[in-house]
Amino acid sequence: MPEEVLAIDSVGKSFGGRAVLKAASIWARPGRITTLMGRNGSGKTTMLRIAVGELRSETGIVRFLGNAYERPRLPVLARRGLYYLEERARLPTTFPIGAQLGCLRKRFGAPTFNEVIARLELEPHLQQRFDELSGGEGRRAALAAALIRRPTCLLADEPFYGIAPKDQRLIGSALRELAAAGTAIIATGHEVEALLSISDEVVWCVAGTTHSLGGPDAARSHREFVREYLGWHLLSPN
Amino acid sequence: MLPWPYVRVFALRTAIIWLALHVASLLVTLTPVYPFRSFVFALAITITLILLDAERRGERRFLANLGVSRVSIVLVSLFSAGGLELLIRLTAGGLADA
Q1: Looking at beta carbons, which pairs linking A72-78 to residues 24 or more positions away fall under 8 Å?
Q2: CB distance A145–B57 less than 8 Å?
Q3: Helical spans, DSSP H, in A32-164
Q4: Do A145 and B61 touch (CB under 8 A)?
Q5: So what's the ipTM on this one?
Q6: Gap from B26 CA to chain A (nearest CA, Å)
Q7: Interface contact B8, partner A, CB < 8 A
Q8: For the residues A224-236, what does the mean pLDDT come to?
Q9: Among positive and negative, which fits the CA dihedral A46, A47, A50, A54?
Q10: pTM of the predicted protein model
Q11: Which of A75, A106, A107 sits opposite B64 (nearest CB)?
């Protein structure tokens, strides 16, 4: 297995005296998509926000490309190749989408700019601002920024949340393509089938810690995961 | 380094706030408690408003993903306010209560 690009290692975090994370860990490896799943409030977003320095962990450490950070900062990590697609990802409304993506193109070269725009079906929206787009269009535009950046590591928090199946497929295949180009990806969310269909590894976040379940098939057959998170047994009368 | 379109945007916003503070200084005293001078106080207000606005608009995180920190935004605001203040002092004098 390739060496990790990013490690969120044994992090702990409490909110108002309640320990959300006690010793949670996840690793992002080149060319692989690791999916972080867990119930609402289990600490998935908290882990990603700790990784980019938006929250400070009480224990544990973040390592990125061999450097250890007790207090990471997104601009510093971004210069080294990290991209953070936050929950319900959005772009600023300051300029039209084309101009926003143009900033990334100028900064990072982006030889695949036109391909990304075509692949995510964004041509008709380049002159629109982010707040003029629908949820799915906006999510695709935000993902386009990440694809143009071609990061070493992408943290995508709930990339499939609240969007149509076709948009989910467009985004899923774009994430797969990015991983195929060598990017290490961590994605979170509750859209089980969409996430499992693109995952190489599933990590379950529960009771303040994390469990690596292996590949999607192993996750689907993991009894505790199925019972405690997926709740599939609730669908069956037996 | 901030992308050029954002340099222009932050410079323009700084100019608007700075001019508004100049107008306000004609009506109310901006001189706060010792040891700050009204110029430093106005600068602090301007930078705080610029940073809060950038956060509200989602610009701060977008720029962070480009490797741009808050320090760059603050520097653009400082230079814009400083340049404008120089221009104002050369033509019309400083803050009314400076």
Answers
A1: A73/B69, A74/B61, A74/B64, A74/B65, A75/B63, A75/B64, A75/B67, A75/B68, A75/B69, A76/B67, A76/B69, A77/A52, A77/A53, A78/B64, A78/B65, A78/B66, A78/B67
A2: no
A3: 44-51, 74-79, 97-108, 113-119, 135-149
A4: no
A5: 0.88
A6: 32
A7: no
A8: 81
A9: negative
A10: 0.90
A11: A75
